[in-house]
Amino acid sequence: ELKVEQNPLFLSMQEGKNYTIYCNYSTTSDRLYWYRQDPGKSLESLFVLLSNGAVKQEGRLMASLDTKARLSTLHITAAVHDLSATYFCAVDIKGAQKLVFGQGTRLTINP
Amino acid sequence: DGGITQSPKYLFRKEGQNVTLSCEQNLNHDAMYWYRQDPGQGLRLIYYSQIVNDFQKGDIAEGYSVSREKKESFPLTVTSAQKNPTAFYLCASGGWTDNSPLHFGNGTRLTVT
User: Fold this and answer.
1) Residue of B21, B104, B109 to mutate, testing the A interface (most A Cβ within 10 Å of its Cβ)
2) Does B50 sit within 8 Å of A97, measured CB to CB?
3) How many angstroms separate the CA atoms of A56 and A44, rounded?
4) What is the pLDDT along chain B (113 residues), one digit of tens a residue?
């Protein structure tokens, strides 16, 4: 059974600081996804990581994937308040075409 | 514009009643999914369908039923057998062949009293 674990689950940080959210998963997978969710809203896709060593960046967010370590990171650079949200990673069960989600990291960025 | 439409946005029901949540997509995706989200929690898979007229149970299928008679539509029925139905329900669809992510609808918040 595929398990996906994120840490930390809660993160409160100040504007301008850098931080990293970690996503570990338990079995082989080719694809990893990062989503953002604002309170009461749906999920918005941020990144799709498809291969070992993949790195993608959008604004102040950068995601990477190490399939050998079964680890993905979401790095936040010089955080701003607008990035406050819950961030989920999700992993594709190889061949099954379904995603298993982590518990989510609730990020609060204080002015 | 292509997308996924869930309705209604809010739904209130009395305990013991069945209720059906609608999900329609015009993205021409073969696969559709229903997830449940409880406050402060991640998403758990209820049912999924990879092709018309076929569907599989997810991790928490008990008390739920689905149908997939058309490619565009994947309704979810929450039956009276579901012990704790109050939750936020999210429908998603995906093409998988194009390496794109799952696309999510805006969700239905169900409250059962």
Assistant:
1) B104
2) yes
3) 16
4) 679 999 999 999 999 999 999 999 999 999 999 999 998 888 999 999 999 999 999 999 999 999 999 999 999 999 998 999 999 999 999 977 767 889 999 999 999 99
